[in-house]
Amino acid sequence: MKKKVSIFWFRRDLRLKDNVGLANALKGSSPVLPIFIFDPTILDQLEDKTDRRVDYIQQVLLDVNQQLEKKGASLRCFYTNPIQAFTQLLEHYAIDTVYCNNDYEPYAIKRDLEVKSFLEEQDVPFQSYKDQVIFEGSDILKQDGKPYTVFTPYSRKWIEKLNEKMLLPQEMNWERLLQIQAQRIITLNELGFNKTEIMYTAPVFDDSIIDSYEQYRDYPYLDQTTHLGIAFRFGTLSIREAVAFALDHNQTWLKELIWREFFMQILYHFPQVEQQSFKPKYDHIPWLNKEADFELWCSGNTGYPLVDAGMRQLNQTGFMHNRVRMLVASFLCKHLLIDWRWGEAYFAKKLDDFDLASNNGNWQWAAGSGCDAAPYFRIFNPNIQLKKFDKENLYVKKWVPEYGTDQYPSPMVDHDEARKRALAIYANALS
Known about the structure:
The protein has 431 residues and is α/β, with parallel strands linked by helices. It is 47% helix and 7% strand. It comes from Sphingobacterium kyonggiense.
């Protein structure tokens, strides 16, 4: 007789604490076996096999497994496609139910529909829950039943609908975990990836940063941002805990959390934005798309110090300060007239905290093509941005040590000329 179990499938929720899907699995009648699937469909898209994100996930799984082992349980890992993983599980167990948390990216939605269909053919229910957001999908709609496409009214409605019960942490009944011998976690080497310098530590809220968030967040050298993007991306931090903390500490930081959900519901309702401009007429812009210009931007050799510092920080660390992200994106689209999709794809490769919805939403914001975007005629002046946010060049000198010497290149384009060219090309394409 096969042992009857329920399965909890970890995805973008890599924590035991306050995990909605896992809590519901632990309320069931069958002991719960937690699993994680390294999906080759996702991993094979990563060209650089020294990827901090894969290393981060592997380290988190080791940590989760250690916590489970203290409870007499263990995490079972797979490196195969999800259907094959569940086929293997069905050979060893009589599966009562498969539990997980919702994921809203187009690939994830397609994958989950396929898994649900496969499991239902085996008479196994598939239960998925809201966990990585406070409001999902169609939770927040306009009076006409359509999704919001402008942030300010969306955020007002979001705050209006929020209540304290939504932020209560989940109660976890650990007695329902399947008691098994410790299982080994798949190594980076087995996945075909290399070790990186990233070190996982459990994410925490830093009062000193969040309490004064709006005061210092725009100054990249001060580095007064939370660096919690990767924790939200992979769910090592509970969004309910984060929102509760924001409500007590800082409304500006709360707005950042709402922006995250705004872009997630945009991607959910308008999945075409993954490939196309939210405003279709922006796909008529005749981008110059010069490879040589793109390479100078990627390597941080544009001759604009704040742009170059940001790109070098990204290339070396997998992180870029948010104020600088806006500038480098505007520079690529407006000064160089390179398609925002090129920049979006580069960020997707390089950012440790890459999130499809936020990355796409912010790139389209910078290009003017997105919902609630910056008007196309708003073009950041890199020189003014430098004077406002790094006037002593401390951030620039950290990442561009040759700045101020003969080794630093002259600006690759003249700001005023590039601005006029962008305005003319945009206006003509959109008329």
